[in-house]
Amino acid sequence: MTPARRAVLEQVAGTILARVAAGTIRVAIDGVDGAGKTIFADELDDMLAPSGRPLIRASVDGFHHPRPVRYRRGRESPEGFYRDSYDYATLRRVLLDPLSPGGSGRFQRAVFDVDADLPVDAPEEQAAPGAILLFDGIFLHRPELRRYWDFSVFLHVDWARNHRLRGQPVAGQERYSEGQALYFRECRPWDQASLIIDNHDLAAPFIAGAQLA
């Protein structure tokens, strides 16, 4: 890990640890496809581990809808990608509501395996006092989710440039790019996030904006 990347992660970790809550601190890592959300959340998990705080890692990818629901508007539909990919009602019921103030603390990390297109029988767990949820995924600043986050990060990258650098074809990806554009128009996640981090250069990310109040 480069010194620049470590410095950003240390700053984010310190900000999270400074938050006080009776229950679980709920942290969202948002960004477009391929923005580096999972890597960032995993590294943040490693950075927080020495604090001794209990950590819960989960992803929106564990809450996909089954294929018939995801593709009911057509396999190439950007609107379907944005509106139908995830089962937010179940996400709230089994993970976010239990970890919210007044919740039971009993949660599940996932309910669906998108590759197998089958439900998963994840065990119910009990959150320990003072836990931190690190939750990564796309579309996390939608209206039905944004109230759950005690702290959130939006990783900013150029979608097309990022996919070229990763060796992924940009042509034919309209479902994803236009679905993200729809999310941007409706939700303006950069206006909702606690921190905006420019993650174009993985070796040298930097904080591009903050709304920490």
Keywords:
alpha/beta, globular, 10 strands, 9 helices
How is this structure best described in words?
The strands form three sheets. A six-stranded mixed β-sheet has the order 2-7-1-8-9-10. A two-stranded antiparallel sheet has the order 3-6. The mean pLDDT is 92. The protein has nine helices and ten strands. The two termini are 30 Å apart. Helix 1 crosses helix 2 and helix 4 crosses helix 8. Strand 4 and strand 5 form a beta hairpin. The protein has 213 residues and is α/β, with parallel strands linked by helices. The chain is globular, with a radius of gyration of 17 Å.
List the helices and strands and how they pair.
Layout: H1 3-17, E1 25-31, H2 37-48, E2 55-59, H3 67-70, H4 78-84, H5 88-96, E3 106-107, E4 112-113, E5 118-119, E6 125-126, E7 132-136, H6 143-146, E8 151-156, H7 159-165, H8 174-187, H9 189-192, E9 195-198, E10 206-210
Parallel strand pairs: 1-7, 1-8, 2-7, 8-9
Antiparallel strand pairs: 3-6, 4-5, 9-10
Helix pairs in contact: 1-2, 4-8
